[in-house]
Amino acid sequence: MRQIAYQRAGSVDEAVQAAAQPEAAFLAGGTSLVDLMKLEVLNPARVVDVTRLDLSRIEPRADGIRLGATATNSAVAAHPEVKRRFPALSQALLSGASPQLRNVATVAGNLMQRTRCAYYRDLATRCNKRSPGAGCDAIEGWTRMHAILGGSEQCIALHPSDMCVALAALEATIHVRGQRGERDIPFGDFHLLPGDHPEREFALEPGELVTWVFVPATAAAARSRYVKVRDRISYAFALASCATALEVANGRIRVARMALGGVGTKPWRSLEAERMLVGATPRAETFRRAADVALRDARPRRDNAFKVELAKRTMIRALTLSAEGA
Amino acid sequence: MNDNHSDDGLGRREFLVGGAVIVVAACAGSQARREGTGPSAPGEPIEIMLLVNGERRALRVDPRTTLLDLLRENLGLTGTKKGCDMGQCGACTVLADGVRIDSCLALAAQYDGRSITTIEGLIKDGTLHPAQEAFLQEDAFQCGYCTPGQILSCIGFLHEGGGATEMEIREGMSGNICRCGAYPNIVSAVRSLRGRA
Q1: Residue B109 lies inside a defined structural domain of this protein
Q2: Same domain, B18 and B113
C-alpha cells in the first residue's frame, strides 16, 4: 500500500470539502477500498473516514425507507421493516460476502463496490479501468466471471454487487451531497456503462458524498424476491442472480420490476422484459418469453456462454417465486 | 505493509514492539470519539488509542496500518492470524465493540477509541472462555491456524442470535475457512454453545 494521509471527517460538509481535494477517497467499511489499496489498484493519497458521521440511520417512512449511507449491510438486512416491506433487499444483502464483511460494509460502500475482475485486480495485466487506454487482457482472457451484458471493446468487467441488483429492481434513489449542494440520482443512472471510458464508473462529481438511499414502498416491493446462483452455497459472487417485484391482480401482472446480477457491467434492468410482463398471466411461458427478451443482447465470451441460459432460468425462478407470493 | 527490516540483530517483531509502540496506561476517553481529525500529510504518523482486551493502548502508527498488523506487529498479539490478508479467509477475525470483523481490511485509525477483543482476551482468571472449551471438547480444529478466528467468529455469531441448525451454523460461520476441513466438529462446537455463550 502506498502512503496515505488519514482524516476523520467531523461533519458531512467537512467530508465533502476534504474529498474534493485531488486523490482523495471516502473510507467507510474498508472492505473494498482497503483491499484495493493493498493491491495498489486504488491509490488515494488521502482517505476521508466517514464512519463517525451521523449517516447510519435506517428510517422507515410511510412512502418507503431511507437507508443511511453508512448503515451496515448487517443492520439493513436485519431491519424488520426492510424484511417486511423490501424482502429482496434483505435477501440480497444476506447472500453477499461473509458475516464479518457485512458487519462493516455499508450501503454507500456497496453502491461503490468495484468489480472483482481478476485482471483489474492484477497490476501485471492490462486493464482500461485501472489504467485508461492500456488495453484489456480480460476480453481475450479467462472470462468465466465476466459480463455478458453492457460490455464494450474496452471492458467487460462484471458488476459484483447483490444489494445493487435488489435496489435496481426496487427503483431506489441515491441522495448525494457535494460542494454545489444536494441532489438525487435515480438508481439506474448511478452506475455507468464502460463504453470508451471504463475508468468512469459512477455518476458522481469529485467530492460528492452519498448520504442516503431512498427505497419507495410498493405492493410489489413487499413481495419482492432475490434468487442467486453461485459456485458454492455461501460466500461466493453470483454467477447469475435476479431480483423481482410483481404485483398481480385478477390473474394478471399489474406491476413488474426486475433486475439481473452476475451478468452485467452494471446491475441489469430490462425495461422491455418488464413491459412484456405487464398485463400477462403469471405463468412459465410468460416468464420464459420475458427472460429471452432480457438476455437477447447478451454477448458471451469464450468461457461464459453458460451464463445466458443460467440467467434466464434464474430470472424465471425469481419471477415464479414472486408470483407465488403476490 | 511495514517494510521495516532491522540489521542490528533484533528480530522484526522485537524491533517494532520495542521501537514503535508507546503504551500509555492512563489515557483519557474510552468511548469512540465522534469529532473529526484535522488533515495530515501523507505518511505522517497518527496517534490513536484502542482498548485492546480491556487494556488501554495508546499508539503512534503509520496511517496505513491495518488493525491486524497493529495487533500482531505493534502489540505482539500474534494469536490473531494473517491468512489471506484480503478478507476472504476469516483467520484475522476479532471483535470490535463485540461485533466480529475481519481485522485485515480495517485501518487501525478507524478503530481509535474503540474496544477490540482478540483470542488473547478471552481467558478470564485462568479460565477458558466457553467457546474455547467447546472447541477443545469437540476437537474442532486440526492444524489450529484458523482456530482463533473461528472462535471469535463463533462468539460473534452467537451474539448475533445465529440459528441452531447445521445449515444456519455453516452459513453463519462461512466467513471462516478451515483448510484442514474441520468443519463438522466446528459445527458441533458452535451448536454445543447455543444458549450458553
Answers
A1: yes
A2: yes
Q: Which residues of A touch B156 (CB under 8 A)?
A: 99-100, 103
Q: Tell me: do B102 and B158 sit in the same domain.
A: no
The answer, yes or no, to whether residue B10 has pLDDT greater than 50, is no
Specify the fold of A5-49.
Answer: 3.30.43
Nearest to B100 among A29, A103, A235 (CB): A103
Mutation target for B interface from A1, A3, A6, A235: give the one with most B CBs within 10 A: A6
Which residues of A lie closer than 8 Å to B, measured between beta carbons? 1, 3-11, 14, 18, 27, 29-31, 34-35, 37-38, 45-47, 49, 51-52, 74, 97-101, 103-104, 233-235
* Residue range of the domain that includes B146: 130-193
Q: Are strands B115-117 and B46-52 parallel, antiparallel or unpaired?
A: parallel
CA distance A229 to A145: 13
Same domain, B150 and B107: no
User: Is there a domain that residue B22 lies in?
Assistant: yes
Query: Hey, how many other C-beta atoms are within 10 angstroms of the C-beta on B167?
Result: 11
pLDDT digits (tens, 9 = 90+) for A204-243: 998 999 999 999 999 999 999 999 999 998 999 999 999 9
Residue A28, pLDDT > 50, answer yes
> Is the per-residue pLDDT at B8 higher than 50?
no
Q: Which three cell numbers stand for residue B91?
A: 483467520
Indicate whether B101 and B148 sit together in one domain. no
Cα B1 to Cα A39, B7, B70, B71, B146: the distances in Å are: 11, 18, 11, 14, 22
- At A237-266, the pLDDT tens digits run 999 999 999 999 999 999 999 999 999 999
